[in-house]
Design goal:
- It contains 21 helices and 18 strands.
- The protein starts with 5 loop residues before the first strand and ends in a 5-residue tail after the last helix.
- The longest helix is centred in the last third of the chain and has 18 residues, at 412-429.
- With 508 residues, the chain is α/β, with parallel strands linked by helices.
- The chain folds into 3 domains: 6-169, Ribosomal Protein S5, domain 2 (2-Layer Sandwich); 187-426, Rossmann fold; 441-508, Helicase, Ruva Protein, domain 3, CATH 1.10.8.
- The protein is 37% helix and 17% strand.
- Strand 8 (137-141), helix 5 (142-148) and strand 9 form a beta-alpha-beta unit.
- Helix 2 (48-57) crosses helix 3.
Amino acid sequence: MGVTTLAKIKSAASIGLEPILIDVEVDISNGLPGFLIVGLPDKAVEEARERVRSAIKNSNVQFPTRKITVNLAPADIRKEGPAYDLPIAIGLLLAGGQIYNPSSGLFLGELALNGELRPITGAILFASLAQHQGIKTLYVPSANAAEAALISGIEVIPVDNLINLIAHLRREKMIAPLAPTPINQQSATAIDSAFDMKYVAGQEHAKRALEIAAAGRHNILMSGPPGSGKTMLAKGLLTILPPLNINEALEVTKIHSISGLMDPNQPLVWMRPFRSPHHTASAVAITGGGNWPKPGEISLANQGVLFLDELPEFPRMVLDALRQPLEDRVVYISRAAMTTSFPANFMLVAAQNPCPCGFFGDPQKACKCSAGQILAYQKRVSGPLLDRIDLHINVPRISYEKLTGVSESESSTDIRDRVMSACHIQQQRFINTKTTSNSEMTTEQVKQYCQLSEDSHRLMRAAVDKMNLSGRGVNRTLKVARTIADLTKSPQITAAHIAEALSYRLQN
């Protein structure tokens, strides 16, 4: 084979959830031996020099003892992570004439010193990029192959080590491409029996509110003394939410993949996410960000539930950062070098005690807090955030008789059937729009689909005056009423639906 001094290999990077092509240009020239990587590499990319050098030497091929320059183009985009190890190694071997031209394949992978490939993050994103760019072949570590094979129209080559890949590119021993990963939607319908609603003693009012929240994807706040079951109710919400469809599952999988949260044995995320960050989490951890923006908890909860336990214990700045994503269903991350966005279509489920000691209003245990302490505690959560929460409910202490009773409550399967029926009505209602649930309705859609009778108008008018409802509060009440009507399969919103929706509003 003749010696080539310049080679170009295709790789990829991601800005947020947007993958972009990266050209890995490798030049071998005369001069003092050296290995230089340019193109805004971070520390992990710079350290690829030592990983690539050792991996090549330990893969029975020769490492060039000449001046090596690697350029990662475009040069004005910062490159991070170890996924460039493989394309750099292949570029060196191609430039040195030790392998044949690998045509237009896309290469990604981290190299161990012995030449084995370690998994990377974002494989499904880069497979989508290859499909969009018309690149027919994707070379990824074997651990990422099943995830990448979820994307149709590309040939995914699972690579165990550099030796096998070299033999494949030399046409000596071919690596069989991975068959497309089968999509089994039955996995989406599984229910975690440990949190089945039938095991929640009492709390029928709270379970009814959760059913409404699940049907319309409304935000909900539960307030009650310690041990009343708020956390168990929140976890039980997952068992009554409708299963993810294929598009939602792919969206969730992309976010989890780029965050490095994928289960190696589960290439597609079928379960709705349930994220429960501790109240010491920072604003960046919740909303996302960093020098190289990564998804935060609200994006990791996309299409699922964000559960904030002990809501008033979160810093005020963190809670107020949720206000814009709750309205727009997307979070924008702005930095000096770039601006990106992440989806944030989540249900906010929050729980709080009524006071610092937790027993304000409890009929059985006296509260030890002063009036000032109670007021200060309740004011930790801002009014604008509370106004964005559709359902406010009290979760009282459960009596011993109910806790030890033998009768079981309604199961999650029965509740979920009603929720899915209501969701189907909404799908038909919004079939030609971007809206997917009642909680996402625009002002125009509220006027179209939430028309009231004269009795309902009188009830709403009186509620606005008595409860001091804001414009947002009125709209959210109408959306909840629309969901309650859908649960009863009623085409019209009646005064009873309005009355129930108003009972969940926070009294100002």
